[in-house]
Design a protein that fits this description.
The chain contains 14 helices and 9 strands. The longest helix has 23 residues. It starts with a strand and ends with a helix. Helix 8 packs parallel to helix 11. It has 288 residues and is an alpha+beta fold.
Length: 288
């Protein structure tokens, strides 16, 4: 697996394949919108993205493309979790890491965005040169990548309203809850587990999360589980039984009822609807 990937031609056709289902991101992804606009869901929160906006998807984020303008275009760099650690990114951003999680879309002024565009283009050229395995080209890539990441950290730090909000108890509790769910939803489905981990009473926990996230803790946990199930039904050949066990359901019948309760269809019906959708699209392409 490559430690990083650089692209400067991420358009609607490329992004459409991520619009059918949510996806858990295992690497760090840093994208600059250079044209058009998009609506995306990141960790179950909807965000409007426009030209000159910078998207930060930290490892283990859950992302879903909801809509795209026809002319949308992104510059993109993906960095493996291991490489981010080697770059000391997580360590150097420890104070604002929670802010990046809560505010994954960073608006930029046009002059700053232009600097980032030039940085991406240089990074893309250096990446092409690195295929020759010349060591100084790889060092150049690391240097350019470090500049972009450090610059992003500084831009976040300038948003004092985000930094000040970090100290709010409601914000902090909700942020920790979201991270706990992302880390544990395959094994822990009960709200009581998360309340205990956060050392708060169930009534206070439910009220606080509902106020901050817009969903009850149980609704949030169910949304994450359902998103993962949809992703596996769409993108893997795993049987429904295997998916159920992977997501912590020991009873297949209960998983089927759970999935239907939250989506309106059984896992089998959902998978069939995706196959029918692909078949119809292929027929349309042949007719064109």
């Amino acid at each position: 697996m490559n430690s990083f990937i650089v692209k400067n031609n991420i358009d609607k056709n490329y992004l459409n394949k991520y619009s059918l289902y949510p996806k858990k991101i295992h690497a760090g992804i840093f994208m600059l919108c250079v044209k058009g606009n998009a609506v995306v869901s990141i960790n179950l929160r909807q965000h409007n993205v426009k030209e000159n906006d910078f998207i930060v998807l930290l490892p283990d984020s859950i992302a879903h493309v909801l809509s795209l303008s026809d002319d949308v275009l992104f510059y993109y760099v993906g960095v493996s979790k291991e490489h981010l650690t080697n770059l000391d990114f997580i360590k150097s951003t420890i104070n604002i890491y929670p802010i990046m999680i809560d505010h994954p879309v960073l608006p930029m002024d046009a002059p700053i965005a232009q600097l980032y565009k030039e940085g991406y283009l240089l990074l893309n050229k250096a990446s092409a040169l690195s295929k020759n395995c010349i060591s100084h080209n790889k060092e150049l890539i690391v240097a350019l990548l470090t500049i972009i990441l450090q610059g992003t950290t500084e831009l976040y730090a300038q948003h004092k309203e985000w930094v000040n909000c970090q100290h709010n108890r409601t914000y902090e509790l909700s942020r920790k809850f979201i991270q706990l769910v992302i880390d544990n939803y395959k094994e822990q489905h009960k709200v009581s587990f998360y309340a205990t981990q956060l050392n708060v009473s169930l009534p206070h926990f439910s009220t606080t999360v509902k106020k901050s996230v817009g969903m009850t803790p149980l609704e949030f946990i169910s949304s994450v589980i359902t998103m993962d199930a949809k992703a596996r039904l769409k993108s893997t050949d795993m049987s429904v039984k295997e998916i159920a066990f992977t997501l912590g359901f020991s009873n297949l019948s209960f998983f089927n009822k759970y999935f239907r309760q939250h989506t309106g269809m059984t896992p089998q019906e959902f998978r069939k609807s995706l196959i029918d959708h692909r078949t119809n699209n292929s027929s349309d392409e042949l007719e064109d």
